[in-house]
Q: What sequence folds into this?
């Protein structure tokens, strides 16, 4: 329950800005399969907004020097409604509220398949037909493994050779014939995500 509450309180939705990237070199991988995947690592730090207390005001200046001069001076006297009021300028500290690393891996050998038709035949037959369908497809190739879930009408197809998954993903819809009927399957990248070094200050 506590974990669920944290996920609701600290849910973050933000678009990642476009960045120009330059290829500088290739690292040594533990296995050949590593080169098939696209891996991304995002360092995320969300700041807690400053909360004003009673009889406080927050002023923001375009130039940092102006704020520093006022802080060094300390006490200030201003006129408000023909009354003089003594004020004190103090620095503002914005503490980091959440820190974590988001690891994203886009598989280069797997694809997700959805909208698999629910037909009254055994699961093994559907797996065999999915394997044959993506093996004979113009964009497909030899299939290494098929994981099918009837309840969600989805499947995960793993190909044997590199590059086949990318070819399949160039088209988001693939025809699928079963029991003399033609259906359209939806395909999407197989993406794995997990958090590391999660901290709440």
A:
């Amino acid at each position: 329950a506590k974990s669920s509450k944290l996920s609701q309180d600290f849910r973050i939705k933000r678009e990642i800005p476009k960045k120009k990237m330059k290829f500088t070199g290739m690292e040594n991988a533990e296995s050949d399969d590593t080169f098939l995947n696209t891996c991304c690592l995002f360092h995320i730090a969300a700041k807690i907004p400053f909360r004003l207390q009673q009889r406080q005001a927050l002023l923001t200046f375009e130039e940092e020097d102006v704020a520093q001069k006022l802080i060094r001076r300390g006490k200030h006297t201003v006129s408000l409604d023909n009354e003089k009021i003594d004020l004190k300028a103090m620095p503002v500290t914005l503490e980091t509220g959440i820190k974590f690393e988001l690891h994203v891996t886009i598989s280069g050998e797997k694809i997700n398949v959805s909208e698999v038709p629910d037909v009254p035949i055994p699961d093994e037959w559907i797996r065999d037909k999915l394997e044959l369908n993506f093996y004979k497809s113009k964009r497909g190739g030899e299939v290494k493994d098929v994981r099918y879930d009837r309840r969600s009408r989805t499947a995960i197809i793993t190909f044997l050779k590199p590059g086949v998954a990318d070819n399949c993903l160039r088209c988001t819809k693939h025809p699928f014939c079963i029991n003399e009927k033609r259906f359209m399957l939806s395909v999407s990248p197989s993406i794995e995500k997990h958090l590391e070094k999660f901290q709440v200050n």
